[in-house]
Amino acid sequence: MHKKSDIYIYGQILFLLLSIVSCNQNSEKYNETIQLGLGEVDEISETDIEIGFIRVLEDSRCPIGAVCVWEGNGKVEVYTYKSGTDSILFGLNTTLDPKKVENRGYDIDLIELSPYPTIDQPFDTSEYRVTLKIQEIN
Questions:
Q1: Which of 51, 62, 100, 105 is the most exposed place for a label (fewest CB within 10 A)?
Q2: Within a domain: 97
Q3: Phi and psi at residue 38, in whole multiples of 5°?
């Protein structure tokens, strides 16, 4: 027959194990890097939130092979949409602020705007792509 102290110890161990399992389940937050081409839309996994790359508002980045006074800036327009709500438009920059916005419970960072301009190789603006890092805040 078990003593009361044994039952107490087993109860404490069970409580501790359940607490650890519960903490591990809650600590997994969304943290992904995605690439979008001009006009493309993606969905943040396991949500009904869409994110889209609308257009490049500015690209004054100093081309490779040029000598510039400053590095320049690329600015893109991105949006999020959640079913039953309005779209939220925002701009993100490569050099200037904001490079990151908080939107619908996520931090959205502009990691890269590509292709990077070069002095002797023009590219079609339809080739623009953004790399975004999306992290759940809570």
A1: 105
A2: yes
A3: -55, 125
CA angle 21, 24, 28 (to 5 degrees): 150
Q: Could you report the per-residue pLDDT of 81-120, keeping only the tens digit for each?
A: 998 999 999 999 999 999 999 999 999 999 999 999 999 8
Specify the number of domains making up the chain.
1
Q: What amino acid occupies position 38?
A: L
pLDDT tens readout for residues 4-20: 666 667 667 766 666 55
Q: Which structural domain, as residue segments, surrounds residue 60?
A: 29-136
Beta strand 106-114 pairing with 129-136: antiparallel
The chain-wide mean pLDDT, for the chain, equals 88
Strands 41-43 and 31-37, by their bridges, are: unpaired
Q: What is the pTM of this model?
A: 0.78
